[in-house]
Request: fold
Amino acid sequence: MADKLMTINLKVWRQDGPDKPGRLAPYTVEGVNPHMSFLEMFDLLNERLILRGEEPIEFDSDCREGICGSCSMVINGIPHGPHRGTAVCQLHMRHYRDGDTLTVEPWRANAFPLIKDLVVDRGAFDRIIAAGGFVSVNTGSAPDANSLPVEKAASDAAFDFAACIGCGACVAACPNASASLFTGAKIAHLSLYPQGEPERRRRVIAMVNQMEAEGFGDCSNHGECEAVCPKQISISAIAIMRREYVKAVVASND
Amino acid sequence: MTSSTMNNSPRLDSKVPAGPLQQKWENYLNTAKLVNPNNKRKHTILVVGTGLAGASAAATLAELGYNVRSFCIQDSARRAHSIAAQGGINAAKNYPGDGDSVWRLFYDTIKGGDYRSREANVHRLAEISNNIIDQCVAQGVPFAREYGGLLSNRSFGGAQVSRTFYARGQTGQQLLLGAYQAMERMVGAGRVKQYDRREMLDLVVVDGRARGIIVRNLATGELERHVGDAVLLCTGGYGNVYYLSTNAKNSNVTAAWRCHKRGAFFANPCFTQIHPTCIPVSGDYQSKLTLMSESLRNDGRVWVPKTAGDRRSPEQIPEDERDYYLERKYPSFGNLVPRDVASRNAKEMADHGKGVGETGMAVYLDFAESINRLGEKVISERYGNLFEMYEKITGDNPYKVPMRIYPAVHYTMGGLWVDYELMSTVPGLFVLGEANFSDHGANRLGASALMQGLSDGYFVISHTLGNYIANTSLPKVDESNAAFADAENDSRERLATLLGIKGEKTPVHFHRELGKIMWDDVGMARNRDGLNHAISAIGSLREEFWNNLRVPGSNDTMNKNLEFAGRVADFMELGELMARDALEREESCGGHFREEYQTEDGEALRNDDEFTFVAAWEHTGRVGDEVKHREELVFENVKLTQRSYK
Reply:
């Protein structure tokens, strides 16, 4: 391919461990092919660092096709970078220009403690799901799959919320580091689906309580979460969560 | 089959239950021993991996009362690579009323696997398929539905009925989240203890039984010992031995390979699946390949120019100068032939100079006709997210320009040998999902991997594990047992060795080199010379690896290059065994295509008289000295025929 190779200047957050000091370190990456993904540029840089006898930059990534939710970089202040509906692994260098300078930082939130460089611990999300993000149905006890028809529109709407990949960009983007979009998406998915109906009250109370216990902030409707969500999950999830929560609290006071 | 070739290894008792095929599983369930509900909590089960097989097994066993520990290499159980499965999951519900049945699903799967899988296992899978759909729907998995509110189905390769349930192009994600949520529910209940960012580095065998594992905490570098009454290995396939594949970056063979070295036989390692519809390789910086779901072949038409070397852009090539070669060669299945057939045909077109795109290593998958017939909206509803994914990667809009696709390594049918109870040759070590070899023979049909992972995890293991526990006396073992100390020391020394070489080349360099050898010589088409070349080339590469590797950093912190180095070392050993297995299987079957053995029109030519067996390799101390054992495959219910999709 005749595409011109680029030089990209990076400032990358380096931190040896949770209790160590961190800093932005400068790197110049030459020979960047515009068809590379953003993470492939990091692969290239890391290979060069190893050969120069320096420590490579640790970052999380796995599927590299935008579905596992592992990758987590804040590029010039925006989680997952500038493109809507795109995880950083799906971002390609053709969207940048030769000579650009990019600052790359980890997700920052008290509830996501840093492990090393760009890697953080998102275990809090698992604990929110463990508190109530499920339907209690033991294996083998299910009725025939077609015994309960579900309106297509409801099913499609539930799907839009179920598409969450649990990456945590919503938390990283929020000025309050709130996990409301993540938690709301699961609550919305399961309250729109009839199979989630029997536990809807317990679920929302347990999940919201856990979200608070993990140290995530409150939602004050900035809307940054929706803007950076790689699956473009609607902020209406948070409205559904609030409505469900109020209904559940009122019902439990009856 | 002549009696002289019947040569079943005494080490490989498949334990297939007696009785007619349709009643074997029921007979098994009726006679399997049960564990008293109050005793289950006294048994700790170690489940390694949290994909469909691992998460569903952990959830189910915990619901039954077992004490479960669950391990994954990702930072969360929800990220296991099952998440990336796109197209769907098969079941014999026959909701569309198009004539499907358990028998047909069984038959298609056996035939699709080119008659190299075990009849009883495949029939059980087909029987269980319907329970899986019920379970997942009850969990709130948002499968596609019709306007009447009932579930929708689509077609997949290798079948003439619509039996595939799907959730847009994210079926794996939705099924995995269902299983993950079921498991998290048990975490919340205190019955599953979850260990994230842990890599299994060894199996601990005490008195001949699997009793524990050694894992490395990937965040801190610490080695940990975990004791259990059984180990369930649910660690997926080994497609990344080719470096470039559709697998996630962290998918690897290390856990399975360590078990192999502790006595678990490795079965049919050469049976790998090259998926026909992936985004082609664009440059040498590439870190992985992206699949475009096979479901696209429902509405996309595969073609190349009729004339070799035609470099015109697709819209300039008139209809009568296009070769819709799958429709031409296989009129009954057309674009929906099984994966191995579609992949080989794409390679053949490229080999004849008819490939398209910059590299000539691609064919078109064209939606123009479907968009004209159904409208862009319908196509977008069916495949919208796949089209977007394609556009993000390539910069081309598939609504306007045909997709360019090419085969890529996707799935491995081979894996650790297991009997009907999913137990390996190490008692107490069970292997589930893609990590075992059992159900797909020499070629897996689309939408069958999700079915198998969930069948093993939700519906098979709970019974077979119970039977093992109830029949086995398991003396108390703790972490201070010498076998744990030995295994931990082995792991520690190995890590130190990798760090201590301090050579000139990175783990990724060796992985890429290995991948090239594997793709060229042990890829879509194989021959004797190429396979012999692969064995010697990998031998040299291993030699260089252990003398010239450079792993940065230390062992007492997060160090992804150290993790990768250990995985590459195991991939090299596995790669050599794959080449040997491919060399000794002197026939073509399914995804294993030996150029020396083909029909006149270039289709795979099996040799049933000599090769109707599972090759299960025993590690005997040194790579290259593995001993091959045979499990003869006996077909009592289906007749072996030359597979035809014409």
Q: What stands out?
A: Chain B touches chain A through 82 residues (CB under 8 Å). Residues 1-5 of chain B have pLDDT under 50 and may be disordered. The first strand of chain B starts at residue 44 and ends at 48.
